[in-house]
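A brief tutorial aside. Many learners find it easier to grasp structure tokens once they have seen a single protein encoded end to end. The record that follows does exactly this for LEKR1 protein. Read the sequence first, then the structure, and try to relate runs of similar tokens to stretches of the chain.
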Amino acid sequence: LISSATNSLRMETEALEKKLQEAQIKLAEKDEDKEKEIQSLKRLITELEFQLTMEKNNNESLLDNMRKEIKHKSDELEKLTQERTQLIHNLSQVQEENTLLQETVRRECEERYELTAALTQAREQVLELKKLSGNFP
């Protein structure tokens, strides 16, 4: 009876040891799979961090270029604004000069008209005098 119980326990122990070994093998395989997954995730994280760094660098470069472009456009706008102001000033001066010249031309035309009228009157008077002197020797 003892021998049979011992054999039964030995067989049960062997079966349990076999199950234990199988469970340990499965556990080792799961650990290996998890380690592979962890390594894969670490590689993915490294790759994503690299991509993020590259994107940040590209964005910073793009931002710097945009800032330079804005500065350039701002300087150009300032220059054009100054040129416009100068042109407006020049136009104002030319308009004043034009007004002065128009006034001068108007006055000279009036003087010419007055002189023409005076000359016409003087001619009429000379003709009148000639007629009168022609009648009187």
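Self-check: Helices lie at 2-135. If you spotted this yourself, you are ready for the next section.
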